[in-house]
Amino acid sequence: MSTQPSPYDILFEPVRIGPVTAKNRFIQVPHCNGMGYRDPSAQAAMRRVKAEGGWAVVFTEQVEIHATSDIAPFIEGRIWEDQDVPALARIADAIHEGGALAGIELVHSGLNAPNLYSRETPLSPSPLPVATYTADPVQARAMTKADIADLRRWHRNAVRRSLQAGYDVIDIYSGHAFGGFHHFLSPRYNLRTDEYGGSIRNRMRLLREVLEETMEEVDGRAGVACRITVDEMIGDAGITRADIEEVIGELGEIPDLWDLVVGSWEDDSNTSRFGPEGESEQYVAGLKALTSKPVVGVGRFTSPDFMVHQVKAGILDFIGAARPSIADPFLPNKIREGRLETIRECIGCNICVSGDFTMSPIRCTQNPSMGEEFRRGWHPERIKVRGSDSRILVVGSGPAGLEAARALGVRGYDVVLAEAGRELGGRVAKEARLPGLSAWIRVLDYRAQAIGDMKNVEVYRESPMNREDILEFGFEHVAVATGATWRRDGVARWHTHPIPVDPAADVLTPDDLIAGRRPRGNRVVLFDDDHYYMGGVLAELLAKEGHEVHLVTPEARASAWTYNTMEVAKIARRLLNNGVHLHLNTTVNAVRADSVETANAYNGAADSLAADSVVLVTARLPEESLFQDLTGALELGQIKTLRAIGDAYAPSTIAAAVWSGRRYAEEFDTELAPNDDVQFRREVTRLAETY
Ligand code: ADP
Ligand code: SF4
């Protein structure tokens, strides 16, 4: 490690958060992880890795303070009663073991809590339907003064339990329309006419009371932070900049740290398709001047220079990160040690967010070890050394092949990576050229850089491999990462058998468009039965190129699965603004020479749409011919091991392909449990004594 002064030294200055001192300016701000109360040890191991990677403070996700704050089916933390303390203590202990301060984010979810598990009546400033993603048919009751007194007491209880659990920083959540104080602050949700409603002074009353009581309860034993939405992004209907200037003007000196967020979670965790790094600067700049206390903010920061700018320009004191810390838990250490080229930059895809939305353990496109620290013992920077001096051939350099080659290389194996084409990266290199997806190239960049530094990994481009080549070169261990191709027969979810396609029709697949082919006519029908990003991205591409695009989908929303990445509304807006015609709840049943036959997805009502060309975004077929050819060689004992990985095994997300490559590398030369058994560690609920 260099002892020379570095332009990044400013990022490693200690900063006080009330009674505790952060060793540097990096804070892993609270982030959900789909593990929460269900998988506490998995979360503990994940947070420990973050701490080990150099973050000064590592937070939990939002932790519900009471049974009226229950946001089931989503899985967050819970500190409802004393029996929740040991799990949270385990997380705090793990963070301490990693060398960071442990932070906890306390939430009373208010109008965001449908209480589907607890069946308590939701509490809110005003009697409104709950504000949840799932539009639950539940209404909240307007809080009485007695309810407010209860809430304040519950908060104190949660603060006391947080201290018992060993937390050093306690964050009071008033952001993203998730934290209940947000609902009090916002004229959108606060329709009260008593001293808790009306003017911003009144609307901040409850937040003030809770902050003051938290300071009193903490009594110098921990730092106190306040996480607050600085602009609700809906004009005067919501929390405005002027409101928040008044809030920080009034309450600015009460907590030890201000944690500034923008709008809703969708606004704050924007994907790279819809916004650049540091997008929130415009909303956060200037607020620091209103308080003597430090401020932290986020911006999908991965550029150390940009981080330095945030501090030097007086915008932030702390660099906050959720996603960049997920993609690279060792980001601070890598900057400190001057190993910038080894940073695994977040690509801004929000696959991590999909873990929360699908209530499954967090995953990350860039960091396949995310969520696997406890379950499989994976680590973002370390992997066990090789178990033999085998030489391994990896065929195909998409995300699966790249990650397999990289991780095997780190293990110390001699690896040959053979790629048929001239460029590396497979689908990532190609898809990164589509509108809005340029940051995805980082999946290749990180791995190409890592592989380039390894003498034991050889890369051969323009090297299509077949069985004869492989046997001739004497490879004994082969990973087949040859990817997949998009189908052109309509098979996907709606149609599980091919649909009639007139040979005279101009039919294109995503592969054709990515390879540069274009529709022969102006009027294009795009049938999306995939439902992730590809259909919407290609509709956008063709519309921008001047085509009249009709997107037909059996789902009720375009790119419906992107609900899980918080992009679905943004995609619809962009498509409509680009003139794309949406035909929702509609399927394509046949492709004719100059039209498609459609049917309503509910009642089958038949119709047709004129089409010069048709784009089918349906299922993909694994490219498994090489794998099948080699199966014979394996049976004959001509090779020793053979595995298909990534899309060549079963087409899925880029994140799944990277994970599959990592799994191959982890399991190579490893004695595995029989696959009748679960292949990873689980934490099973402890039974109550009686029932
Ligand atoms: P994944 O997502 O599983 O990594 P991709 O489709 O992104 O799969 O990448 C597959 C890569 O494999 C492509 O770059 C493709 O050119 C390459 N490939 C396919 N068949 C062969 C082959 N027989 N020999 C070498 N490379 C191949
Ligand atoms: Fe970034 Fe995507 Fe990883 Fe989330 S899943 S941290 S957005 S690379």
Content of β-strand: 15-25%
> Structural class of the helix and strand makeup?
alpha/beta
- CATH architecture field of the largest domain: Alpha-Beta Barrel
> How many beta-strand elements?
28
The count of domains is: 3
Strand order of the largest sheet: 3-4-6-9-10-11-12-13
**Overall mean pLDDT:** 97
Q: Could you say which small molecules are bound to this protein? A: adenosine-5'-diphosphate, iron/sulfur cluster
- The CATH class of the largest domain, by name, is Alpha Beta
Low-pLDDT residue spans: none
How would a textbook summarize the main sheet?
8 strands, parallel, barrel
Radius of gyration, CA atoms, in whole angstroms: 27 Å
CATH topology of the largest domain: TIM Barrel
| SS field, number of helical segments | 22
Q: Termini separation (Å)?
A: 58 Å
Write the CATH homologous superfamily of the largest domain.
Answer: Aldolase class I
Principal-axes shape call = globular
Explain this structure.
With 691 residues, the protein is α/β, with parallel strands linked by helices. The chain folds into 3 domains: 9-357, TIM Barrel; 391-483 and 623-667, Rossmann fold (3-Layer(aba) Sandwich), CATH 3.40.50.720; 487-621, FAD/NAD(P)-binding domain, CATH 3.50.50. The protein contains 22 helices and 28 strands. Helix 3 packs parallel to helix 6 (205-218). It starts with 14 loop residues before the first strand and ends in a 24-residue tail after the last helix. The relative contact order is 0.09.
